[in-house]
Each structure stands twice: as C-alpha cells, then as structure tokens.
Amino acid sequence: MFEHVIALIDEANSEDPNCEEFAGKNWPKERLYSERMTQMLNRFNVDADPLMHIAVRAQHIKRWCSPRSDFPMDKQGYHQWRSALYVFHAKTVVELMQQVGCSEVDQQRVYEAVAKNQIKRNPDSQLVEDIASLVFIEHYMLAFAQTKPDYDEQKWIGILQRTWQKMSIEAHEFVLGGHVILPQPLVPLIEKALSGK
Q: Is 67 exposed, middle or buried (0-12, 13-18, 19+ CB in 10 A)?
C-alpha cells in the first residue's frame, strides 16, 4: 500500500510541464524535488515511518497546478498562496491514499503533516518542514538568490534567519554538523545570519 501511494505521487509529479536538468537528465521539476526530499529524509531520519515518507514525498505534489500568479503579487498575496498550497498538497495526497485504501487515521496524519498544521507542536509537520528547509539550503537556495539580484544583505539575512527559525534543534545540529552541502557563494552570508550579527 505504501509503495503504491509513492508510485502514484511519482506518477502525478512526472506530469510537471516544467523541467530541470540534473546529472545529465531532464527531470520534471517536482519529480526531482520529491526525490531530493526522500533522499534528505533518509539522511536526516533513517527511522522515519512509511507515512512520513509519503508526506515528505508529497510536499510539492502537483505544485504547478496552483501558480503564484493566481494570487495578488504582493506580500499578502504571497502568504495567501503559501497557505493555499499547503491545503492543496495535503488534499491531493490524501486523495491518492484513499484510492489505495489507506485508513482514515493514516490519511489524517499525512494531511496534518503536509498541510504544516501546528509546526513546532506536531512532530510530523515539523519533520516535513525540516526536510523542506534542508533541501532548500542544499539544492535551491543559490538558484533562488540568483533570481533576486535586487535583494541587499539585510534582506538575505532576514530570509536565512526566518528559514532557520522554522527548523528544529535537530535540523540545526544536522546543518552545523556538516551534513548538508552549503552553497559556497552564500556561506559567508549564512554564517553572518546564524551569528545573529
């Protein structure tokens, strides 16, 4: 049942019309992202149970179906988009779980985690947030920085500090212990942000 849900998530994410080149292969963007999420979970928490593997794999499921442009292009619109995405991803993966006959209890647990309900209080939600943050740092932070040449140092320090605040102590230790590949051009800025100066 677990493998069937994972296969359905992969099938859904393979429909992404947006592509990304990696290791000589052209990937559907969200399919590659989901693989990176699973790989990071295996590095960060080898004891994670199957439901958390489903939640992590579905973190961005069919994200292209809810584009940023559907919401006002201001700060409030951005937060509305993010909140809507959490619910969209959670509902989408639960529908797949229903297809294969997962219990309502399991469906609800995955829903809560993917919807990021009660981060800091719900360990499942926190785990999904931790993995997403670690994947962002290792794989996407540098590319994101390159799309924002107008951001000054203080803006970046704020972004880095907010990302850090969302992560658990265990995730902090994982980064500080050298278990994440940091984007080298941003290391001085990261160190400055984490020093609180």
A: exposed
- Report the distance separating Cα 4 and Cα 193, nearest Å: 42
Q: What burial class does residue 153 get, using C-beta atoms within 10 Å of its C-beta: 0-12 exposed, 13-18 middle, 19+ buried?
A: exposed
Q: Of 26, 28, 2, whose CA–CA distance to 15 is shortest? A: 28
pLDDT of the chain, 197 residues: tens digit per residue: 899 999 999 999 999 999 999 989 999 999 999 999 999 999 999 999 999 999 999 999 999 999 999 999 998 999 999 999 999 999 999 999 999 999 999 999 999 999 999 988 999 999 999 999 999 999 998 888 888 888 888 888 888 898 999 999 999 999 999 999 998 888 888 888 888 64
- Judged on CB neighbours under 10 Å (0-12, 13-18, 19+), 59 is buried
Torsion of CA 17, 78, 118, 137, to 10 degrees: 60
- Gyration radius (Cα) of the chain, Å: 17
| CA 115 – CA 133 distance, rounded (Å) | 15
Torsion sign across C-alpha atoms 179, 183, 184, 187: negative
153 and 186 in contact (C-beta within 8 Å)?
Answer: no
CB atoms within 10 A of CB 161: 13
